[in-house]
Design brief:
Oligomer: single chain
Order of helices and strands: HHH
Strand content: under 5%
Structural class: mainly alpha
Distance between the termini: 66 Å
Number of helices: 3
Shape: rod-shaped
Largest sheet: none
């Protein structure tokens, strides 16, 4: 669905169909934005060097020193 189809449907007086087209357009744009954000977040989390996770034993040893 394109914006042009939406405009044509409005001009033809097909308001119910235009509403459905508009919802599809907005939904598609929102999905694309969400997908881009998920990829950006994943790159930030998994793209760099993995962080070293301290175990409880390492913490206890460091505190004892």
């Amino acid at each position: 669905m394109t914006t042009r189809q939406f405009i044509d449907q409005l001009a033809a007086g097909e308001s119910a169909l235009a509403k459905e087209t508009l919802e599809n357009i907005i939904s598609g744009k929102a999905f694309e934005a969400l997908d881009a954000y998920k990829k950006e977040m994943a790159a930030g989390i998994f793209g760099g060097q993995p962080e070293e996770i301290e175990t409880e034993e390492e913490v206890e040893v460091q505190e004892a020193e």
